[in-house]
Write a structure and sequence with these properties.
Layout lengths: L10 E3 L22 E9 L2 E8 L13 E7 L13 E7 L9 E7 L7 E7 L8 E9 L4 E3 L8 E5 L17 E7 L4 E4 L13 H10 L4 H16 L4 H11 L5 H14 L7
Parallel strand pairs: 1-4
Antiparallel strand pairs: 2-3, 3-4, 5-6, 6-7, 7-8, 9-10, 10-11, 11-12
Helix pairs in contact: 1-2, 2-3, 2-4
Length: 277
């Protein structure tokens, strides 16, 4: 899996540049395409989010699936690409991370189904800019993500996990999902992978957790293999490779242990969500 720019054609982003939204301003309610009607509208910080449904198929499932176009306004003007939402799209905001004292726009989408796929995009809507600036575009497959101020400095980080090990060594139920953290870099003007820096704020799977899984599934080879991997990979992804290897060798001593360790390290080092210390 690679970190990539994600084109959210499903989003209709409307931005007023250099114009503040006053209490008396009336948000337009203009259909983005012919045949669509307004389903709902909500305020998200300084943004107004509208969901328009296809009049011929207006049903919105409890999960949020629909034939919809989502429109986001700032003020009274919109800039849009009229296209249907793909999957379930949620629009929110996060308190200023760029230092401009303005909230950033957060778009989270999920394709639906039991597994796969999550995409998160964060935009800085800057005064005087023609378009919102993407400061994070990330697809994380089976791993959801969350904005959280891990170090309590007033600026949120994006916490997720690495899905690369899905089904590689065991069933999905036992698959390890090591952590990944992105933090905003003001010099680069974007979120960058920073897991090692935030390692002490993460709750990792411990040796005791791994032993508890083995105790619960005493005759399950997959449980033994992946519980050991889960504890080890948590250390490996937070900059403690040798410590992680030592823990894996302590917890898992089956005939395939060396091969599993080698393959897991190869997969980790090839992943775009793993970083050297």
């Amino acid at each position: 899996m690679k970190i990539q720019a994600v084109s959210l054609a499903s989003l209709v982003v409307a931005v007023v540049l250099g114009v503040s939204c006053t209490a008396g301003a009336q948000t337009p309610q203009v259909p983005p395409q012919q045949g669509f009607r307004l389903h709902d509208q909500k305020q998200v910080d300084r943004f107004v989010v509208q969901r328009w449904v296809d009049s011929a198929n207006p049903e919105v499932s409890p999960a949020g699936f629909c034939e919809c176009i989502t429109v986001v306004y700032e003020g009274t003007r919109r800039l849009f690409t009229p296209a249907l939402d793909t999957g379930i799209l949620a629009v929110s905001a996060v308190t200023d991370v760029t230092g401009d004292k303005r909230a950033e726009l957060v778009l989270s989408s999920h394709s639906g189904g039991a597994h796969c796929c999550y995409t998160t995009s964060i935009y800085s809507v800057e005064p005087g800019s023609a378009t919102p600036k993407a400061i994070l575009n990330l697809s994380t497959d089976d791993c959801s993500g969350e904005l959280e101020d891990l170090d309590k400095d007033g600026v949120a980080e994006f916490r997720t996990c690495d899905p690369v090990f899905g089904y590689a060594f065991c069933s999905f139920a036992f698959t390890p999902f090591p952590p990944a953290v992105f933090a905003y870099d003001r010099q680069k003007g974007e979120f960058v992978l920073s897991t090692v820096r935030y390692a002490r704020y993460l709750q990792l799977q411990s040796e005791a957790d791994a032993l508890a899984i083995v105790k619960e599934y005493p005759n399950d080879a997959e449980a033994a293999r992946c519980s050991a991997l889960g504890a080890a990979l948590g250390l490996i992804y937070t900059g403690r490779v040798a410590e992680g290897q030592a823990l894996f060798r302590k917890l898992y001593r089956s005939a395939d242990a060396a091969a599993v360790e080698t393959k897991a390290l190869e997969m980790a080092r090839a992943s775009s969500l793993w970083m050297e210390r």
